[in-house]
Design brief:
Chain lengths: 359, 308
């Protein structure tokens, strides 16, 4: 093995100050449809304060899909709920940052304005559609509840719109099924109902929080395709929250990888799959089962994600990182831009250095 | 929109009119009804409840005798003609009095349960939904009310109200029962509201911009109501028993009201001369209370998914 050109204990002076590298925690220019900046969310627990989302920034524009990827407990769902404004406070508390929707900071507006934005501008699809649908009402009633309550749509018109929305999410025989109850639908159909409900008021941003996790594999693909189609058709911004790298490959334009409440890597989908910069992303990609690696056993990232009450000092990933050095235990690496615009990684070592030292 | 979608939208009007009525859209309530129909306890309890309510509403269907037409010459006379249970100390028709006594019991029970329901629902919903200091405050009020002895309060209140009005005492009994008996219902409501509040469909409603009142009434209430209604049904039975107890102790209804409790109290003094005037109202009281409690139990079992 040849010695890599980098000294592993004192890596980054030259690499971090290279031209074109700058911290990207605050996006530089232009107004995005939804622009989340430096979001921080804490939970008050019996054992202390858990910082579940720690300085997360991302943005989406119409017609674009952003995937937020992370293990359970990485803070991705809490991020979505904070953007949506449906966190239970307490125990949760948004401690800082901005959620800019078309330039308006939703964290700073009055509660009434916030409520207007919910559903109307930004809507969300939940993971488990069965529990997200009210068991005592027919699905058509639920899909159009917001329309009736907030837009004053009449009952007959609401019914027509419900059928239309159900057809739009490709529920067969929508007109016959509009009066059925949630438990009479299969898992995939229920998720379609949930999507129809979220789309009833034509939001500009749709957040899908693990929309396919509760579904079986064949149905997963259908729902992902549906979301992609709808995004294009309605020119929405789609934020896809998932732990499944396989699910997002075909649908996402850009991917943000979260670990322990922080963003560890951000890149467009091709770059991320072809040349992951962060060791965590590399681990995730290596853990995808591959046909051409048959008989080799599954790779996994050793250890488990840290408790948000005890995030390791320094780089939060260092206890599980095969590349970890002294510096990783001492200081947390900032999210630094790599090369082209809109690609960043929070690692002390540049990707070339990681490449040079295969595990 | 896809071809499939357009096709479905086109058939919509026709299909709406011809929507199949039966068997398709089964809700939890429909499932519960399916279970109930196969439960003989439900039918027995329902039959008894219907019978008692019918007695209360239209006693003339059961007896043509006047319960207040008493004749001391018939004192303790045995069953004769329409008087299946004979005559009591004052020579009144025991069967007629028992039938007419149902009205007071049912009226007190229903009115007190309505009062209980209103208070319990408001307390349970507010405490369960808003939580925090409001929950702490309301729960302490529940504890305080639980600590008030029913009999003591009934004695004080009935004496107090009796001084104000010369009525039969129904109002005072309803107020005593309603004001002291709502705690269990409120606690049950609070806990089922707590359970419903953390459901995803509540989060989904919030996600779509629903306000707190819409969420409470449209999303939480229908899902939290079943256990509450069951408790109220059982409470109705116990209220009827309590009314009889209070009347028996002379702090409930008063003559000229006709009530099972009053009749049991007077007949008890003369049980050695004639047992039937005591047995008849006691039997009706027991069956009525039992019917409501069994009905509540049966409904609870039908709505409990764990017993499926």
């Amino acid at each position: 093995m040849t010695e890599p050109s980098h000294s592993w204990d004192t890596p980054t002076a030259e690499w971090a100050t290279r031209p074109g590298r700058a911290t990207v925690t605050v996006p530089s220019s232009g107004e995005h449809l939804l622009d989340v900046r430096d979001l921080r969310v804490e939970f008050a627990t019996r054992d202390g304060v858990a910082r579940v989302v720690d300085g997360v920034s991302f943005h989406v524009d119409p017609g674009e899909t952003l995937a937020i990827l992370g293990e359970s407990g990485s803070g991705k769902s809490v991020t979505a709920q904070a953007v949506m404004g449906i966190l239970d406070t307490p125990p949760a508390a948004v401690r800082g940052g901005q959620v800019l929707f078309a330039g308006e900071d939703l964290l700073a507006v009055p509660a009434e304005r916030r409520r207007q934005v919910r559903g109307q501008e930004i809507a969300m699809v939940f993971q488990d559609a069965l529990s997200a649908l009210n068991p005592v009402f027919p699905v058509g009633w639920q899909i159009t509840e917001a329309l009736r309550a907030r837009k004053g749509v009449s009952k007959a018109e609401a019914r027509r719109r419900a059928v239309e929305l159900m057809s739009m999410v490709q529920i067969p025989a929508a007109a016959q099924r509009v009066d059925d109850y949630p438990h009479q639908f299969s898992g995939g159909m229920r998720q379609r109902v949930m999507i129809a409900m979220a789309l009833a008021m034509r939001p500009k941003v749709l957040i899908a929080d693990e929309p396919t996790t509760a579904l079986d594999v064949t149905v997963q693909a259908q729902i992902m395709d549906l979301l992609a189609e709808l995004r294009a058709e309605l020119d929405m911004a789609l934020i896809l929250i998932t732990h499944d790298l396989g699910v997002v490959a075909d649908v996402a334009d850009r991917i943000t990888v979260m670990y322990a409440g922080r963003i560890v890597e951000h890149a467009d989908v091709h770059t991320l799959y072809a040349a992951p910069a962060h060791p965590y992303t590399r681990g995730l990609l290596a853990s995808i089962p591959r046909l051409d690696h048959r008989g080799h056993g599954l790779r996994s990232i050793t250890g488990s994600p840290p408790s948000p009450l005890a995030v390791p000092h320094g780089c939060p990933f260092h206890p599980r990182c095969p590349y970890a050095q002294q510096v990783c235990r001492m200081t947390a690496p900032p999210l630094l831009r790599i090369g082209r615009l809109d690609r960043a990684s929070a690692c002390h070592f540049p990707p070339e250095a990681l490449d040079a030292r295969p595990i | 929109m896809s071809d499939l979608g357009t096709a479905a939208a086109e058939v919509a009007p026709a299909a709406t009119e011809a929507a199949p009525a039966g068997g398709r859209s089964r809700s939890l309530a429909a499932d519960a009804w399916y279970d109930l129909r196969r439960n003989w306890i439900f039918w027995v309890a329902s039959a008894l409840v219907v019978l008692v309510v019918l007695m209360a509403a239209a006693p003339a269907l059961f007896t043509s005798a006047d319960p207040t037409a008493c004749d001391t010459r018939r004192q303790f006379a045995g069953p004769a003609g329409g008087a299946f249970f004979g005559y009591d100390f004052q020579g009144c028709d025991v069967f007629a009095r028992t039938v007419h006594g149902a009205r007071a019991s049912v009226l007190v029970g229903v009115l007190a349960v309505l009062l209980t329901g209103v208070i319990g629902l408001a307390f349970g919903m507010l405490a369960g939904y808003f939580g925090g200091w409001l929950d702490a405050l309301l729960s302490r009020i529940v504890d305080v009310v639980l600590g008030i002895p029913l009999l003591l309060a009934a004695i004080v209140l009935s004496k107090r109200l009796a001084a104000d009005s010369q009525g039969s005492g129904i109002a005072s009994v309803v107020i005593v029962l309603g004001l002291l008996g709502w705690t269990t219902a409120a606690r049950v409501m609070r806990s089922s509201v707590l359970a419903a509040r953390s459901q995803d469909y509540v989060a989904a409603a919030r996600m779509l911009g629903a306000g707190p009142w819409r969420i409470m009434w449209r999303h939480i209430l229908p899902n939290a109501l079943a256990p509450f209604v069951v408790v109220l049904t059982i409470t109705l039975g116990t209220f009827i028993a309590t009314e009889a107890t209070l009347s028996f102790l002379n702090v409930g209804l008063r003559a000229p009201a006709i009530s099972w409790g009053i009749d049991i109290a007077t007949a008890g003094k003369h049980v050695r001369e004639a047992a039937l005037p005591l047995v008849a109202p006691s039997l009706f009281l027991t069956l009525t209370v039992l019917a409501f409690i069994m009905l509540g139990d049966a409904i609870r079992d039908a709505f409990d998914p764990k017993l499926r």
